[in-house]
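User: ok so my PI wants both of these folded by tonight, can you help

Assistant: No problem, let's get them done. Here's the first:
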Amino acid sequence: MNKEESIRFATKYLEDLLSFFGINVAVDSTRDDEVIQLSIPSTSMNSLLIGKEANNLRALQHIVSQVLINHNGELTRVNVDVADYKRQRAEHIAEQAEEWIRTVRQTGNSRRLNLNAADRRIVHKVAQDYSDIKTHSEGEGRERQLIIEKITEE
C-alpha cells in the first residue's frame, strides 16, 4: 500500500483497536517525513493509554507499526500521542536539559543520565546549541546512559 493508504490504514486500525477497549474517538493523522503521526484526543482513559513510563503508548505504536509491516505499507514508522502527552513531555525534557547543561557548564563536571531513547534524542538536540558542550550515549539496552560533558580547551 502506498503512503496515503498506509496513513489511512494506520488511523483506522488504531481507531478500531481503541474501540475494542470502549474508547470511541476519531484519531487525527498527519505525516512528518517518513513517520505517521497519530494523535488520540483526550479521554477519561488517558492514563491507561499512556501507561507507566509511557509503556502502553509505545506498545500501541509497536502494534500499529507491525501491522503496517505485515500489510506491506510504504510507511511503517508510527508515532502515537495521547492528549499531547509526548509534546508536553518533550518540552519538559528540553527545559530540564537546559538546566543540566547550565550545571555542567558552571561546574565542569559531566552528568550521566538514565533516559529512554526519545528523551536522549531531545537532550542531544538541545545540546547542539552549545559549542562548549558535547553529549554521547554509552551502554546497551536499558543500561544505556546519556553523558553531558563540557568541552575542555587544550
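One down. Here's the second:
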Amino acid sequence: MVGDKMTKINWKKRLNLDNILGIVNNVLLIILSLVMLYPILYIFITAVSNPVSFATAVNNQKFLIVPQGFTMEYITEHLQNVDIWRAYGNTILYTLLGTAISLFLSITCAYVLSRKGLKAIKVMTIIVVLTMWLKPGMIATYTNIKSLGMMGNIMGIMLPFAFSAYNVILLRTYFAAIPQDIDESAQIDGASHFRMLTSIYIPASGPAITTVGLFYAIDRWNGYFWAEIVLQKDKLYPLQVLVKKMLQNSGESGDLFRGTVSAFALIIIAIVPIMLIFPFIQKYFKKGVMVGSVK
C-alpha cells in the first residue's frame, strides 16, 4: 500500500512538472514567433502608413504595431506602374520555368542515385554531395556564364543555378524508401525506367517533390543578385531587382521616409503571392521534410 501511494505521488509530481515544462515551452515558442513575425508586420505597417505620420513616429522612437495614418496610395501607385507589371511577369516566368528545370534535373538525378544495383553508385553520390561544399565562387561562376555566351539571356540564370545537391539527396532518400518488390514487379512486367519513374516513383513521392519544388520556387522568386548581374537589361529584370533598386534609392533620396514607405509597399506586392500559396501546400511541405529526414 505504501509503495502504491509513493508511486501515485511520484506520478503526480511528474505530471505537474510536465505541465509546467509544457507551459514554459509554449510561452517561449509564442515569444519567439512574435519576434520572428514582427519584421513582416513592420513592413505591412510601413507600406500602408502616411510618410509624415510614419516619420513622426520613427523620430519619436515609437514602437509601431498599427499603421500611422492609413493610406493605400503607394500600393495603388505601384499597381498602376507598367514597369512593375512587366517585372512581375518576368518573375513569374523565371519562377515557373526555373522550378520546372530544377525539378526535372533533381528528380532524374535522384532516381539514378536511388538505384541499388547500379555500379559506382557510391562514387556518384559522393560527387553530388561534394557540390554542397566545393562551390566555384562568384568570379568563377560569372566567368563560366560569360564564356558560355549566356549574358543578357534568361538561360544565364536558369541553367547555372538549376541544381541543388540537398534537394537531390532529399528526393533520393524518399525514392530509396519505396518497396523493392514494387520495383521488381514493374521490371518483370517489362516497364522501362521512364515508365517506373513516371508511374511509380513520382506519384508515390508527392510530398517530397512538393517540398523540393517549394524550395526551388522560393529561391527563384527571391533571386535578385545574379539576375541583376547576368540579365543586364531593364526589360528582363525580375521584380526583386526593382525592389532592391528602390530600397537603394530610398536611402539616397532627400525625402527618406516617403521613399521608404514606397519601397516597402513594393515589397508587399512582391511577397503576397508566396504568402498566399504557402498555406495550401504547407501540409505537403511539412510531411515531405519530416518523412524525408526520418527515412
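The mean pLDDT is 79. The longest helix spans residues 2-47. Good luck tonight!
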